[in-house]
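Aim 2, interim progress: modelling of the DP6-bound target.
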Amino acid sequence: MTEEDFILKNPKNTNLEKGSFTWQSPSNIALVKYWGKSDPQIPRNASISFTLNNCHTITTLEYLKKRTPSSEYSIQVIFEGKANEDFKPKIIHFFKRVEKYIPFITEFDFVIKTENSFPHSSGIASSASGMSALALCFMHMEKELNPQISDHYFKQKASFLARLGSGSAARSVEGPLVVWGEHNKISESSNLYGIKFPYKVHKNFTNYQDAILLVDKGEKQVSSTVGHQLMIDHPFAKQRFIQANENINKLSNILQNGDLNAFVNLVESEALTLHAMMMTSNPYFILIKPNTLKIIEKIWEYRKNTVSNICFTLDAGANVHVLFPEKEKEKVNAFITNNLIAFCQNNQYICDDVGFGAMNLE
Ligand code: DP6
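Predicted structure of the complex, ligand included:
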């Protein structure tokens, strides 16, 4: 598929006037990280993530045909029941990027109502779940205009549009494992959209658990978008992109052969490499906090003293994702409650597990 294949041409139904669609879309946690991109939202290396189950965004898109045609966007955003201006610049930016592919967006007045299952100021990024939920609503509208599109095209284009809102959102349409970015060992992989991991996954990774420890709920000092830009002149960028693509290859084998030791090693190394890239950018920055490190040390200590396969990963923030196989759930949950939540803000953490992707709520 090329970008041209995603341009909506000659819609069959020209009578669309008014209506609404609601989609629930999950967050995801990358195992091999996307950090560094070129225009327009093309990743410098392939990435792979677990789709989450409980952390999601629900978005309703209401549309009404404009009485007077204009090329201006007409958008109202309601976040958790209240008019919200803060999200508008990102949404307008998204509209500009996707207009070429869904040109009908200038013909309607839109009200976008959105809410997250996780607390707003939890430090959990909502751009992946938020942008994919919105992209799915627009695809539902496209299907209304062009009912013959296949389910496969629907999901592929939803991921394509979501990527233009936020790169990691390309991985939030399906589950349980999604690859985004062209890779020579992952068939059908693309820089333009995410695909379901195409090989059979070992049972060790079924229903994998993710406990998200909320270490710091404050606004990040450096956004992901700025972090990505700092990879452009980064002294280690070239090597990092090679390493990430090698890690995709290794992880693909691990996911198929069930080697939990190798999984732990690769996933933790990816998390620390991501933060090493931040610390070695210019300007340099640090997003982890003292309690992030305390939790990491406790996890390493626990692993040394038990036969556990618990490990951690990090996204672009201080929170820690604690990953472990389902069969260790009871023991690890006890360990988290007794030893880790003391390092979380207000003792807060979210229990999640791997999920299967977005859902239409109508
Ligand atoms: C560290 O997808 O948030 O979570 O494309 O600029 O919106 P934009 O960036 P974003 O970057 C995510 C970075 C990451 C790693 C990952 O999810 O792969």
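The longest helix spans residues 237-257. The longest strand covers residues 47-65.
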